Amino acid sequence: MDFSLLIQYVAVLIKEVWRRKFLCLFGFALASFSVLFIGGFWPSTFQTSATIFADNQNILKPLLEKQAAQSKVQNQTKVVRDMMHSPRILKKVVESAYSTDSYESAEELGHIINRLRSKIKITGVGQNYIKVSYSDSTSEKAYRVINSVIDVFIKISSDEQRSESREAFLFIDNQVNQYKDQLVQAEVRLKNFRADNFDGRDGDVDASISRLRTQIEELKIDIDEDKVTSGALKEQLSGESEYSSKQAGTDIYVERLATLEQQKTTLLLTYTDDYPDVVSLTYQIADVKKAIRDAAESKEGESNKNADENSVLNPLYQELRSRLSLVQTEIQAKEKRLIAFKRLKTKEFDRRRRIAERGAEESELTRDYTVTKRIYEDMLERKEKARLSMTLNIEGQGVTYRIQEPALPPLNPVGLRFLHFVLVAPFIGLFSVLGFALLYISLDPRIRFASKLVGLNVSTLSVIPHVNTSLTKRVIRFDMIICVLLMGLIMAAYIGLAYVLKLGMI
Amino acid sequence: MKSAPSSEIGRMGEVDRFSKDELDRLKIISGSMQNSKILNIFRELRTQLLNTNRKKNFVCMVTSISQGGGASYVASNLAAVFALDKTKTSLLIDANLYAPGLDKLIIGDSESGITDYLSDNSLDIKDVVYATGVPRLRVIPIGENREAAAEYFSSNKMQNFIDEIRTRYSDRYVFIDSPPILDSSEARILSEIVDVVILIVGHGCVTKEQVESAVQIIEKEKLAGLVYNN
Predict the structure, then answer these.
(1) Is the pTM higher than 0.90?
(2) What is the per-residue DSSP string for A44-104?
(3) Which residues pair with A136 in a beta bridge?
(4) A206-219, pLDDT tens digit by residue?
(5) Which residue of B has its CA nearest to A468?
(6) Test mutation, B19, B49, B228, B229, chain A, max A CBs within 10 A
(7) Deepest of A93, A119, A242, A434, by most Cβ within 10 A of its Cβ?
(8) Rounded distance between C-alpha atoms, residue A23 and residue A17, angstroms
(9) How far does A437 lie from chain B, in Å, by closest CA?
């Protein structure tokens, strides 16, 4: 709005108000007294609040981890609001904070519950902290109701928590029993299966076959080696005669004689003939020579008797024959063993085929058993946890909600108080008068601004301002004194009425 | 005391004059007044009227659109501002049958007025023109015979009267304070015989539609314009 236009509006407003000054004073008085009266009967509102802490731990969460789908963690403020606004809690609050005979019909109870619901405000004030506010007409009532609301809420949520953990325990216990039965059945089935089948398991047969194969291979190599040994012995044997000549005996003495003579010659280079060692060697040489002679004589005498008598059994031949015989015996034994091993291998193959035929059935039984056993053991562990949680809850250790800031009895009312009305009413009176005047100026089609004449098919020659004569000035002054006096009277009456109303309130 | 009828400018200085306080009480402007703003506004209005009528003397009807517009105040001050010029005189005729009041400007008593003159042939113009406390300003009051004013105003005598006061002195400017134009037939009749009409729009008295209606009643050539009176 243009500033000059605003000034014009203000001037016109003042003019209009002054023109109807007594009406305006009456309007001012009427509006002020009306507001004062309203303030006198305006109900006081006492508000109190408590803060509760919501423990976010869900008892099923650690218990049913990975085993069951988790319900999504909800907004705690919303949960608390829904719970506190629920009729079951509010009904208990009505019964505890008021009395059971405070309502006569279900409809009346419904009204009381609705009123309570509208007055209980629940707001989140941070992570897991929830502020519960309640306002009522008296401090005592507000304090009593909020305590009742908090107590009932915590008790019910605690009971629910207990029943939840108990249900969780019973559920897990039931599950454990079911898995136990299943495990026993699986065990029996597996035992029966194994009792009916002696072939053992796949791994055993494979190990046995592998072992047999190794043994067969080793045996074959042994047999080959023995056969080579046998061939070599036979060849050596063919080169040796079965018997050997006696002449061979003198050769030893001749060789011995030569050695002794060489030793004697060596000693004689240093010592004389009478040196004991030389003497000893001389005697030894003589003995050997004698032996050679005896051997030669005996040989000449026997050669005439029988030529066969001169030959003896060849020891090497005998040795070779003995070893050959031994090797051949071993070859025969090993071949027998090889045949036995091969037969065993065939049997193991047959066994493995049988195992493979029944393997699917066995693996199913085994798997069933293993899985059931694992789950059973897991559930058994969880059952113990559930038992612990349930015990904690029963002892009141695992309560989800607890009071962080307890409610206090409100000392002063909140919202609009009588004093506010007393202070504000004259302003309301003033502004209502000005507002009505402004409304009147706006709605009245009569021209109050020279600018409104613009646009007509005729020019405006002049705008003549209002002129007050000295008489009118005196009249205005007189009117002003009257107005001030009236205003003083109105305000005196106003203060008096306010005081009376205040006393009435006390 | 009955003043002498107006005849010439030279004789006008002989009458009694209003004191400053009397002028203030009567809400009449004067050259020595402290509120020069209001004086200048009327001077400006005078200049506009003179320019409109090419500086010839004229008969101007001042009428408000409805009751309470302040036509008498504007008419008397217009007459006063013209009379401020020593070379001009002004004559103020009170034709406001329903709320006459210009006789207060007359020093002394007035016996007859315009209605008496129109109804009584024995009266001369001189008999109804009275001097005022303002130099060079004369007034013809309404008179006592107001019952058939509409008929008198539409009579030939009225026409002749207007012609005579217009033509007798070339330096005389005539202002007629008439009743509200929308409320009376007299104002319409008078608008026929005058040279210039000024419409007074009173603060908070009329709507825009009423202004438009009033404008349509008056001949376009005669309508000098609107004056907004706070």
Answers:
(1) no
(2) PBEEEEEEEEE----THHHHTTTTSPPPPPPPHHHHHHHHHTSHHHHHHHHHHHS-GGG-S
(3) A46
(4) 898 999 999 999 99
(5) B27
(6) B228
(7) A93
(8) 9
(9) 13
Rounded to 5 degrees, what angle do the CA atoms A133, A137, A139 make?
70
Any chain B CB within 8 A of the CB of A17?
no
Using the CB atoms, write b or e for A233-242: b if 16+ within 10 Å: beeebeeeee
Place of tokens 């065939």: A346
Estimate the share of chain B in helix, then strand, then coil, as percent rounded to the nearest 5.
40, 20, 40
Mutation site, A441, A458, A460, interface B, largest B CB count within 10 A: A458
Phi, psi angle pair for A361, to nearest 5°: -65, -40
Range in A41-45, A71-75, A420-424 the model is least confident about: A71-75
φ, ψ dihedrals at A51, nearest 5°:
-115, 130
Cα A385 to chain centroid distance, Å, stands at 15
Answer for the pair B108, B3: CB distance below 8 angstroms, yes or no.
Answer: yes
The span from the CA of A216 to the CA of A345, in Å, is 9
Show residues of chain B in contact with A467, CB under 8 Å: 27, 35, 38
DSSP B2: P
Q: For residue range A109-129, what is the model confidence (pLDDT) as tens digits?
A: 888 888 888 888 888 888 788
- In which residue are the tokens 């060596």 written? A266
Residue pLDDT, tens place only, A343-358: 999 998 988 888 887 7
DSSP letters, A172-221, are HHHHHHHHHHHHHHHHHHHHHHHHH--S--HHHHHHHHHHHHHHHHHHHH
Asked if residues A453 and B228 have their Cβ atoms less than 8 Å apart, the reply is yes
Within a 10 A sphere around the Cβ of A266, how many other Cβ atoms?
A: 12
Residue partners of A298: CB distance under 8 A and separation at least 6: none
Strand order across the B89-94 sheet: A460-464, B223-229, B196-202, B59-64, B172-177, B89-94, B137-140, B130-131
Give me the half-sphere count of Cα atoms (radius 13 Å) on the Cβ side of residue A70. Answer: 13
Are A51 and A404 a contacting pair, CB within 8 Å?
A: yes
Write out chain B residues lying below 8 Å of A471, CB-based.
25
Q: Where are the beta strands (DSSP E) in A95-179?
A: 120-124, 129-136
Shortest alpha-carbon distance between residue B105 and chain A (Å):
16
How far apart are the C-alpha atoms of B167 and B170, rounded to whole Å?
Answer: 6
